[in-house]
Write a structure and sequence with these properties.
0% strand, 77 residues, Non-ribosomal Peptide Synthetase Peptidyl Carrier Protein, Chain A, single chain
Length: 77
């Protein structure tokens, strides 16, 4: 897996009940990771801090899967 994916799953595991190695690209953020809207806002801030890049909060809220977040981070670099 890529470094970006590994860092993303590390951040996600801190905000969900799923361990990093168990997170898959196809996993849904809401149902699979049990991340609600308030947690998404906190997640957005954590992603900005981890990746040191601007991230559009609306795009984080629009993301449905882990893969969507990965694509967002890849295009923001």
């Amino acid at each position: 897996m890529s470094d970006t994916y590994s860092r993303l799953t590390d951040v996600l595991s801190g905000w969900s009940k799923v361990a990093g190695p168990d997170i898959t690209p196809e996993m849904e953020i809401d149902a699979g990771l049990d991340i609600d809207s308030l947690t998404r806002l906190e997640l957005c801030l954590a992603l900005k801090k981890e990746f040191q890049q601007p991230i559009d909060e609306n795009q984080v809220f629009a993301a449905n899967t882990v893969s969507d977040l990965l694509n967002l981070l890849s295009t923001s670099e």
